[in-house]
Design a protein that fits this description.
Layout: H1 6-12, H2 16-21, E1 24-29, E2 32-38, H3 52-68, E3 75-86, E4 95-105, E5 109-117, E6 123-135
Antiparallel strand pairs: 1-2, 2-4, 3-6, 4-5, 5-6
Length: 148
């Protein structure tokens, strides 16, 4: 995907947390976001594999990125529900590959499913998350006086 594509440029604007995870965006369209994350010692659990929280954080960042590039002007998004099925471990030194696709893209909510695979192509986790679409309001601001 050309780096001048507006959707890809918006998707490249990642929060600092994604940098801590080692998140690397591969591609982004309105209906698919693909990224990878190295399984490092810093992200491991006591069993020497990628920590479940790191996998969940990676998936949440993918789903959030997918939701952000589908926002209407003036909207923001937040995760309101997330469910993870862990199927296989990802060993340290491997790379987690994530592919996020929409299950539902509505006006007020979106549901995204992220499949995490290992380098060998086997599925390690499947995450389904619901994103709420909202107009951001500063505390104390009355939405009736300042409609977006």
């Amino acid at each position: 995907m050309p780096s001048s594509d507006p959707t890809h440029l918006l998707a490249q604007d990642q929060p600092h947390f994604s940098l801590v995870l080692g998140f690397r965006l591969i591609s982004a369209t309105l209906d698919e976001v693909v990224a990878e994350m190295p399984a490092t010692v810093e992200l491991s659990n006591r069993n020497g594999v990628l920590h479940g929280g790191a996998i969940m954080g990676f998936a949440d960042n993918l789903g959030g990125t997918a939701a952000v590039i589908n926002l209407c002007p003036g909207q923001s998004t937040t995760t309101i529900e997330s469910k993870t099925n862990f199927l296989r471990p990802i060993r340290i030194g491997d790379v987690a590959h994530g592919r996020c696709v929409p299950l539902h893209k509505g006006r007020t909510t979106q549901i995204w499913q992220t499949t995490i695979t290992r380098r060998d192509g086997k599925v390690a986790a499947i995450i389904t998350q619901t994103q709420m679409m909202m107009t951001w309001q500063e505390p104390g601001q009355d939405a009736r006086q300042n409609p977006a």
